[in-house]
Amino acid sequence: MKSWRRLSTALLASAAIVASAMAANAAELMLRASDTHPDGYPTVAAVEYMGELLEERSGGRIGIDIFHSAQLGEEKDTIEQTRLGVIDLNRVSLGPFNNLIEETKIPSLPYIFRSTEHMHRVMDGPIGQEILAAFEAYDLVGLAFYDGGSRSFYNRVRPIESIEDLAGLKFRVMQSDLFVDMVNSLGANATPMPYGEVYSSIQTGVIDGAENNWPSFESSGHYEVAGFYTLDQHLIVPEVLVMSLKAWNKLSPEDQVLVRQAARDSVPFMRKLWAEREAVSEAKVRAAGVEIITDIDKTPFIEAMVPVYAKYVDTDRLKDMVKRIQATE
Ligand code: GTR
Fold first, then answer.
1. What are the C-alpha distances in Å from 308 to residues 3, 163, 186, 303?
2. Count of beta carbons in the 10 Å neighbourhood of residue 27
3. How far is the CA of 90 from the centre of ligand 1 (A)?
4. 213 lines ligand 1 (CB under 6 A)
5. Is the CB of 95 under 6 A from ligand 1?
6. Cα–Cα distances in Å, from 96 out to 137, 266, 283?
7. How far is the CA of 251 from the centre of ligand 1 (A)?
8. Which of 30, 43, 115, 282 has the smallest number of Cβ neighbours within 10 A?
9. Is 36 near ligand 1, meaning CB less than 6 Å away?
């Protein structure tokens, strides 16, 4: 009797899961997508939009189930899970790929791009294609690049008005050796840590600050615990949307085209949302009374990066890529 009851409970539970999955979406193939950001953030909205395009173009056969707010884990872990095929799609910064895929170091170099427009021209062209192609050797398919604005330092101790003011401060960086060396070369101390630990680490004084763009500074709530933001704009790191090679290989060639095209078509949508969100986030942070330092001489910051370039741009191929980026109008 007992085992019968257990069995029927189990049957009811699995029926409920199936029913809710069917009610939520009738698509035959739901791709599981991960993002560290909350619902409504431009990257999350862009992958959702890609899902709508896919459903429409596949006649409802393929859709995307998006797990936002780091529900599936922090970026470094979700990258591993995507390589293993546990997660199908992943929207991440290029930063956490730096130690794994050497090509991703190049667009992650400090001050490599002169502006967002320069970054677009490079990443939309052959160099961007070369970097997307590099993912395949690591069990991933590079689908598209999204915007990540420019990243600047914020902290809870003092306003950074010159490079000297960074001395001795402890900043969280993404889990990438390149960013550790970047911060240390500026005279501060770097602590690599997952994004989700930054808020409490600033609050409790484990670190003095971190660095990020306007929308992340705002949506993470970091501005509530770090009252000084200096627009030194040391990084313009693109975001990337990757797919698990395992999941990709299960698709028919026609469906691979659909997925790649839907990802591409989500890029202009994302860029528009990004520009809007930057303005909204900036206004919110300013209204909260954060001291914003805009007038900063970037020259010493750029000069301090010479040893970082020497260390990370360490092959002829990477040197050539840097030259081609610098030569891009
Ligand atoms: C954000 C980026 C995230 C994550 C985060 C971080 O700007 O969109 O993917 O990399 O920064 O600092 O960890």
1. 64, 16, 10, 10
2. 20
3. 13
4. yes
5. yes
6. 16, 22, 29
7. 29
8. 115
9. yes
How remote is the CA of residue 57 from the centroid of ligand 1, in Å? 31
Domains annotated on the chain, with CATH: 2-102+113-145+239-280 (3.40.190.170), 151-236+282-327 (3.40.190.170)
Amino acid at 201: S
Question: What pLDDT digit, counting tens, does each position of 268-320 carry?
Answer: 999 999 999 999 999 999 999 999 999 999 999 999 999 999 999 999 999 99
Residue with the smallest CA separation from ligand 1 atom 10 is 93
CA distances (Å), origin 146, targets 45, 142, 209, 213: 12, 12, 25, 14
212 lines ligand 1 (CB under 6 A): yes
Nearest one of 101, 72, 70, 100 to 88, comparing CA atoms: 72
Closest Cα to residue 228, out of 155, 171, 166, 298? 155
Nearest CA to ligand 1 atom 4: 93
